[in-house]
Amino acid sequence: MKMLSFNAKARAERDFRGTTRCPIRFHRSIDETGVGHSGSLGGYGEQMLYGREVEQARIDRLLEAARAGRSGALVVRGEPGIGKTALLDYAAAQGIPAVRSAGIESEAELPFAGLHLLIKPGMALVDGLPTPQRDALRGAFGLAQHDPADRMLIGLAVLSLLAEEAAEGPLLCLIDDAHWLDRATAETLLFAARRLDAEGVVIIFATRTGEQDFPAPGLPELALTGLAQESAAALVDSRGPDISPAIRYRLLAEAGGNPLALLELPAVLAAEGTDSSGPNPLPLTQRLQVAFHGQVSRLPAATRTLLLIAAAAGTNDLTTVLRAADELGVRLPDLQPAADAGLVGSDGVSVNFRHPLLRSAVYQGAPLTQRLAAHATLAAALTEPENTDLRAWHLASAATGPDETAAAALEDTADRARRRSGYSGAVAAYERAAGLSTDAFARVRRLVAAAETASEAGQLERARRLADRAAGLSTDRMLGARLDLVRATAEFGAGKPLSAHQLLLAGADSVRTDDPARAARVLMQAVHTAWYLGAPELAEIAAHINALDLPEAEPMTAVAGYTVAGIDGRFTIDLRDAAAAARRNGADSPRDLVQMCGVGLVVGQDEQAAELAQTLIAECRDQGRIALLPTLLFFRAETELFLGRPREGRIAALEGLRIAEDIGQQHWISQMSSYLAYLAALEGRKPDCRELVDRALAEELGGAAAPGAPWTVAALGVLDLGLGKVDSALSRLELLTVEPARHHVIGLRALPDLIEAAVRMGSPERAGDALDRLRDWATASQQEWVGALVERCLALTGPEAEAEGHFQAALVLGGRPFEQARTQLLFGEWLRRNRRKSEARTQLQPAVETFDRLDATPWADRTRTELAALGIGTTSRPTTGVLARLTPQELQIVRLAAQGMSNRDIAAQLFLSPRTVSHHLYKAYPKLGVLSRTELPALPLDVA
Hints:
By secondary structure, this protein is mainly alpha-helical.
């Protein structure tokens, strides 16, 4: 069975008509058009668009690319009635199989309601997904009991399903009224849309004007404005000649080219008469609602009651609407007058309003007592288990004051939503439940749950407000600690590490006696905030951790011990041993072990940090804990750079950046961008470096105080150093010697750069403190490669007579490829100045080869200049190796394929669709000179 195809009959219907309409989403009879109808409710071929040639051409290009196997997405924005749905209908009529869904205002707090509408017909395919994706999607729909899944994993499952459906040909997904999608659905579909590549899938969203209504960063947009006067007149005239010239003139003047207004306002204007004193002051949307309400008010009372129940229902299911209506003495025949007036349509299964504004007009125009009665009857009618959540919301909407029955039902709804990763809907349910609570403690408990869930959802400002409300109602220490953690997360996200740090300390202190393990976990988060503040704060955290009474068998004991040793400069604990001990004692891996990677880099245990980061990354992928991946991928990128594998570092950083952008982790967007700026600096790509620096320091990421600021300083300093601008390089690098950057990983790693810049500037005295710190680090870390850096710097700063001995000692100690080559370059320069040309050449030639291999162009050019000065000729830069022809993503995919992984497995690991994996493989084969994946294992793919 193929996705979204109920059976052979449905498939045949789709193939014949070019579309499968979602069985729950009924196509509108009169749309937000620019469309003329013959009056029937179906027939795409009967429609005609006016004045939308440019917009149609944009859609045509998307669909043509899909037919060629390329994917795309588009967000169509415009005011109500401007013609968004009409464009979706146009797209659906172009012969590509289509599926549709839509946001419904009353379902906006029901997690994954919109996604379920889209995916339900293809649920048979879900069992064929990789296990984490299958479990995530089934859990999201409440079909299985699983821990909350990462929202990105659910998005990947949707992407996989769409790609599978498009395997036999292009697929079109149309999402109407996206501004009313529940947030969980919106995030899931946006993730899938951003990841589209080579599947032949097109997703088009239609939404109201304003990014706040449906923020879709990274997706192309199409803004719809009013029709031109000529097209507006043609649409009006297509409705018939029964509009007087005076009314026609006012209509064209006041409708602003809005197609729905052009179709709906003539009767209103006729009623107002031609002697009106001027244009109606009401906004156009309100005028349209007034127009719709006028049509509704002329219907029989029973019909109005039935329409009110349908408007309030939160579902289009006709059976549910009629069951509720029956309680008020209303029956199916009472719907006929509304159908005759063209206000609603029904296929016998669902009932649909002609336009969302009509639904709003019906609901808002009804008296409050009638609305309350409608919700009460709907709550009584929704008895099926699958309607439990909707029933809870109707109970809440029917309440006129505190109501513990409704509050308890909503709390259960929130708990289910949270388990299904529908965090935004859970927040709304918890908060409303708190408002309906009759018990004071229950009210606080529900507010705390709302605050914590909002924090998990990334709604940090909302989380802060909820936490502040709850804190004012309770003196319970454990609840207070939970609220401190929420507020700390919000403060850190707002770029206020000091207040976040203080809140974390307070939260840990309040539970240190009753729950030392919880206190330890809070303090480990405080280690992260302290790193952005300075050495005193780190020392304070170490003291707090040391004061905890943690049993030896507690998982956090080993983590805390390693962390404190790193902060105190006692680099005597082996990272592998500490991580293994934490695991043996039941640590929540990867969560509890993440910060150990960062401490390992400060300690200088780069190889061990790389191993641990890679292990934790694999665990995150297997467990679907995607929110942790940017952090770990950043640590992985750092280790790869420090170990002399910048190409591997770029692959990790690009993946981390893409994930951070997908899930809105601003902190790591800044960090990844600054790291990539550093790589660009090493390669001498000045424009790219500066562009990435600007991205890392963007105002929305914190500006000059952004998390990536220290790495940007290092990037610009190394760029200047490589280009020979030692004055500006020194000035920049000295910024890393003051807090808080002083004790950052990059603050330590940049010490040799600062020392070299100071010496080349003729100001070696400005390197004194840096050299002392480098020596201390070498002593504490007991790492030979750090010792090699010390020897190189002593050769630069010490007596001339001792320089050769220090250079030779550095080379004997060895080190990472880039640093080793820099030592050879500096030694070669010293030898040439001392007229020892043959010895200089033996240092410079391997140095230039290493720089070339690492794409360190400025350093390679400097080395070639030295070789030329020896009079032995200048070697040209060699042709790039075969791996350099691959993009980072192609290389990543090729390596996994060489390990024997299938396209499906590779896609699951890299959060792509299998079709995209196949596309990249077939692009890579010619570059590698192979014909198939069977030849890949023989290639040297691990050569950086």
